[in-house]
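Would you kindly consider the sequence and fold I have copied below?
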Amino acid sequence: MFIFILQGVWLYIAELAGKDLDVMVTAKFILYYMPKLIPLVVPLTVLLSSIMVFGNFAENYEFAAMKSTGISLQRAMRSLSIFIVALGIGCFFFANNVIPWGEYNFYNLRRNIAKMKPALAIAEGQFNEIGNINIKVDSKSGDRGQFLKGVVIHEKSNTRSGNYKVIISEKGELKSSPDSSILQLELENGHYYEEIINKDVRKNQNKPHVKSYFKTYITNVDLEILNSDDLDEKNHTDRYNMLNVSQLSSVIDTLEQKQNNDYKALATTLFNRSTFSSLNINIDTRRPIDSTTNDSIAEPDVSKLTVLDYYNTAQQIQILNLAVNSSNSAQQILDSNTKNLATKQIFLNKHIIALQDKFVLAFACIILFFVGAPLGALIRKGGLGLPMIIAIVLFLTYHFFGIFSKNSAEKGSFNPIIGSWLSTAVMLPLSIYLTTRATNDKGVFQFGMLLLPFKRLFNTEQKLQLSESDTKTYNFYSKYSIEELIEIIKEQDDLDLNKKPKEIALRSLLDRKIPFEGLKSEGLEISDALIEARSLLKDYKDYSKTTLISYCIAILLFVLHFVFNNNKLLQFGESALTLSIIAFIFFLIYVSVNAIVYTKFYKKIALKVKPINPLLLILTLPIYPIKYIIVRSRISQDFFLSSLQNIK
């Protein structure tokens, strides 16, 4: 909290330094600023402290002592888990009540400071928006910074957008009263310029304007505009942070209703501007007209007729002109409403994100605890060294995901609810994984197990993982002839000895890709079902590889669709999307074929296998590459086990 407060003070140092503020005002400033830091401070604190505490336990063999007395990791975490759940619930109520209170008082305090110290509202060398003016000053002086030099003001109008009024003066003075919310600005030695926009466009070609010089000019600014408690005020994008859950829900409902009304009004405007009802032409659809003679066609060729063929030439011209004018008018209306509707959508999205953030904070504390606690137990390091580094890296990952997703959700790239929960959802699988690893007393990562599926992916032989001695035996057997390997298999079955030589000999035979029919002719007992199973295994591998290729192509083209659209290559983007859909259809077809071949295969080898669940099959489609690695390896192992049992 202290670190984040320092960061906040540094952020507002330009407004606080040298303003002759007493200690109480500065203390209130920090006090009201602190609640907004809780969504950052609490998750990081929970993550860091859980890694430090449990890492310290593991480093001092406290967990070893617990496990020797029958205390599991879950039992050791039970009391802290209850505390973290209570903390999460407390954080929700804090976010719902205290943070809005702090935001409201923080901005009101800044408003009051601006009344007492008007110079706080204006920073040197940059434009500052205050009410309906943008003001820039070269320098300030005086005990309260009230004397200004090099003043430039752009004054906004309530009836039109743009900078049409400019006031420039050599110097000025800020005047205000503690009992008034009006900031008075007195300017000296300057000039005033305003551009006049006439309703008659032809008169605007002469660029009419008003220009005058002045010795003294006084303008007033209502400081209430800086931090008013008007919930509908949109000048401050963080106004939604001052609302609790019930207020946010009410405002969101109101904004959604207004949005629907805006869309309906736009649709009504477009329909009315089309002047469709003014056409009012009665026609006989059974009597098409020859446009050259304006006479009815006696025996028309219906296949060659168009809609315009039922109107005479004058009516056709009227319709075409109406269509052109209507389309141009609709395009202008859409262009003028696009930015306005987008701004309102962003404002609505910010309210939805603010509402979801109050719930996200509670769950983030719980999930990050179940990331930090097992991670500390696994890394076996306490203190402020390695735990601090790991906690910062994990928190930055969590925080950056949150910033990226919320910024994208605000602009409408995806649902604002998803944007609020994405960073927490990313940490959820990690918490489950780490808790499982710590419970089973395994390391954080076993790189050998991680690399094994990839080795199997690119190893079409699908060899068993043999021990060092078995590997030597396998290499020795690889020099044997087929007849010698068959004799080893037969001898092991007849003598009922150790099955390991038979296993290695059979593996050597299978790796040579000798057809089962040939082995059967050499004297081995191989059932027809096993021969068919081997054929089905080959089909499954071929189909699954084709399925994987279709999946990769579909994903690649889908990504290229967004890349092309982002670079305004719309035609390429549409083509990539179409090809991606085609590849995905092929992917679905091959997935279905794989499922059929998979079922037939297990029926042939007579091994018990759970029937394919269609719902599970659909849910695993997004992670098909992982499923491909796992199932491809398992089905090969099951075939080898069946061969080991049935080949004699």
In short: The chain has a mean pLDDT of 75.
